[in-house]
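Same chain as my last thread, 267 residues:
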Amino acid sequence: QLSLNHREFVTRQLKCVTQVPGPKCYQGSRLHIHEGQAALQRGLMELQARTDERLGELAFAQRKTEQALTKLATSHEELAASHKELAASHKELAASHKELAHGQTLLQKGLSDLAQAQRSTDERLQELARTMNSGFGKIYKMMGETVEEIARYVVPHYLEHEEGILVDRLEVQFFTIGESHFEVDLTGDGRRGNEEILVLCEAKRTVDVRDVEYFHEKAKDVAEATGRKVFPVMFGPRCPWRAHPRARELGVLLVPWDYYMSGGRCS
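reply #2:
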């Protein structure tokens, strides 16, 4: 607006100069000068007011910008702190992973050593088993059929001192029950107090659960056929532990081989 007022003033001045000079022209020029100055003054005042208003807006915007920058700086600091914590956590995780990898390596080595030890143990056990089987085979070969001969002397002694049963002697005896014919290794008449007992003894190299059950059924058949009280006894150098509870359950006496090996109280 100030520029427009100035151009208007210049235009009027040029018009006055091109016209024939006269008193009226000079008076009009002065009047136009005063009007231009007044218009210029008003324009300057309005411009100053708008400038002040704009400066106020700029100051408000500056304050807002500074507040935003402050918040941004705070967020940046928080982000930097979070990044620092994340870096520390990552470092701890890397250390834990390294420890875990080391532990895994030790575990693998331990498992490998254990497997090797297990293989060595298995080999030793197999060798021991072969040695024991060979030893037992030699013992059985030397014994031949003497298990029954040993039982013939050990069992009566054991029955007398451990069970209170007196037996004169034990001999092989054959039984016929119905259409069945079977042999009992050692049989003898015994007495416990005033009670007469028929002692049946099975002498075997190995006495297992099935042997106990089979001999129990055989003793039952003899008891039913003869009507006598039967006392079943089994004797042998090998008697697995699982046979003992089954023998007690069925009422079959297992004379321990250790009794013979230690000499018992035999004279």
